[in-house]
Design brief:
Length: 153
């Protein structure tokens, strides 16, 4: 019985200590979402068969044109579309659209069931999680890397 109680106390102390360490970490480390090729030959970043982004690399502090692509039923894709970007290093959450964005998505495109053109701006370099929502319910997330602008552009 003594050994059992001692084991419980040690387990509780370890849980408390590991919880303290996690809360002291500054951010989350994650790899960018993979790229995939659709049946039409479009190369997108995201989750094959669920959500993909078509467009150039993300440049921090500069609007980038990207086309969102979604695979799903009419019920899943029929609501109001919105998005949120989360800086994985700081936890900062922002609206990634510097311009007004249409609340609904368009029809099939590049093999997807729905699509939406957008201008996305991520203010800082680093890893960002882009969360897509329909009627306030998270549909899917893609992790992208915003890089510093290089060259004379």
């Amino acid at each position: 019985m003594r050994i059992f109680i001692s084991s419980l106390v040690i387990a509780a102390i370890l849980m408390v200590l590991s919880g303290c360490n996690e809360s002291q970490e500054a951010g989350i480390e994650a790899d960018a979402s993979p790229f995939f090729t659709t049946g039409t030959g479009a190369v997108m970043q995201g989750i094959e068969g669920k959500m993909g982004l078509l467009g150039p690399e993300f440049v921090a502090g500069k609007p980038n044109k990207h086309m969102w692509h979604f695979w799903g039923t009419e019920d899943e894709l029929g609501g109001k579309f919105s998005a949120e970007a989360v800086n994985l290093a700081t936890g900062e959450k922002i609206n990634p659209f510097p311009l007004d964005f249409p609340a609904s998505i368009g029809g099939p495109n590049n093999g997807a069931d729905g699509h939406a053109p957008s201008s996305i701006e991520l203010p800082e370099p680093g890893m960002w999680q882009l969360d897509a929502y329909f009627d306030g319910k998270r549909f899917a997330s893609v992790i992208v890397e915003a890089k510093l602008q290089t060259g004379g552009q």
